[in-house]
Amino acid sequence: MRKLIFILTLICTIGADAQIAIQDVAHQLAKHKYKKVYRCFDANMQDKVPASQLKKIWEQMELSAGKLGSVVDVRKNLRDGGSRQSAMLQFEQAAVKMTLSVNENGEINGFSIEIKADIKPTINNEEQMNEFAFAKELGKLDESIKSYKKALDINPNYPAFHNNLGNALKELGQSAEAIQSFEKAIGINSGFPDTYVNLGDTYIDLNQLDQALDSYEKALSINPEYVEAHNNLGTVYNKLGKLDAAVESYEKALSIEPNYADAYNNFGVVLKKLGRLDESIASYQKALSIDPSNADTHNNLGNALAELEYLEEAIRSFEAAIDLKPDYAEAYNNLAIVYMKLDQWETAYDCNSTALDSMPEFAEGYATQGRIYSEQKRLDEALLSFKKASEINPNLAYNLGNIIQTKMRLCNWAN
User: Which of 62, 387, 400, 401 has a Cα-to-Cα distance from 253 of 20 to 30 A?
Assistant: First the structure.
């Protein structure tokens, strides 16, 4: 057998005092005390590496290597007022070398993990073995899937490969196959919350909300501070119409990770549904202060502002969304609606036309087009647009009223 090394390196800082010991750090991570470790980071690394990212790194490593058993061969070298420490971490399926450096303030400013796994020599070289880890990032999902399947031919009982294969299949839209892969990973080792979250995300894609709910709850039973699981649970509750439960989930996520932009955005969506528009706007603004590059949040903020008749501010939000995502049909359509409120019908028509060019099967876009035609007294064209909207989305409830009203104006009750 060959020893292949998978290296995961995180330059970070963990410091509480100058006597910090590598074995203490390892055991805190093994207990999933990520926030406790995070509080030892220096200011620079607290900025760059949130506790949620540290959690992802450690749990992905656990997914590959199993649970931590013992910490042995501890070594410490003093240097520059601080120290460099290393140890071997004995996991269920691999020996892991952990290295960290502590600065003169007692803060860890270097942290690396090397997972040494026994792999049969069927795969020719390390570069080929590592190929699957990067294929997905390069957008080569088909190649990634082939590589994961090849790895599973070698070691069919390696849960990380089943999990990662599931992720690749999910991104290709092969949801049923993805679920099978996640379930195989769980069947081998049911102790990793990441796989349950991935499974829940796939069930959401299929609109199987009860199964998604169950998956996220299982993830949280393993790790109650899994911030993404709380956030995604909120999404399920929102879709189920359980808005108060969604609020609780988002509040819990944000109590764990106060700089979680996606949770603030999702929280804003629910607050708007509850009619708490000022709070919704504040939540979107907080999300954008953390991540100003999220086009969806700019669009959502624009909708909330428009509902409160802050129309100029809404226009700026929709334009910001379009700057980030030039083919953003929903933002163009929302912009058209604001210009309709401002009685700027030609501009509204142009925005709506761009929306429909970007998304030809956009029901809400055709409903807006019908309203513009109706205002311009082009009633036959308006009726065709409203009918087109209903053909695309028969559940667009408000559009039925548009059709009836237009037929009344035309005295046309055929069809």
Answer: 62
pLDDT in tens, 155-198: 888 888 888 889 889 988 999 999 999 999 999 988 888 899 99
HEC sequence for 323-338: HHCCCCHHHHHHHHHH
Q: Which residues pair with 3 in a beta bridge?
A: 118
Rounded-to-integer distance, Cα 114 and Cα 65, Å: 11
In order of 2, 6, 115, 129, 153, the CA distances from 119 in angstroms are 6, 11, 12, 9, 11
Distance, CA of 306 to CA of 312 (rounded, Å): 8
210 burial type by CB count under 10 A (0-12 exposed, 13-18 middle, 19+ buried): exposed
Measured CA to CA in angstroms, residue 156 lies from 115, 127, 128, 148 at distances of 19, 21, 18, 10
Nearest to 257 by CA among 41, 59, 35, 80: 35
DSSP assignment of 131-151: HHHHHTTTT-HHHHHHHHHHH
**Cα–Cα nearest to 29, from 42, 14, 17:** 14
* Residue ranges of the chain with per-residue pLDDT less than 70: 1-19, 45, 64, 79-80, 114-140, 412-415
Q: What is the pLDDT of residues 305-326, one digit of tens each?
A: 999 999 999 999 999 999 999 9
Q: Amino acid identity of 409? A: R
Residues 6+ apart with CB under 8 A from 58: 29, 32, 34
Residue with tokens 């603004």: 285
Q: Measure the CA dihedral 104/110/111/116, to 10°.
A: -120
What is the enclosing helix (H) or strand (E) of 201? Answer: helix 193-205
* Whole-model pTM over 0.85: no
Residue 14 and residue 123: Cα distance in Å, rounded? 37
All residues at 6 or more sequence positions from 284 whose CB lies less than 8 Å from its CB, including other chains: 264, 265, 268, 297, 300, 301, 304
In 31-66, which positions are buried (b, 16+ CB within 10 angstroms) versus exposed (e)? ebbbbebbebbbeebbeebbbbebbbbbbbbbbbbb
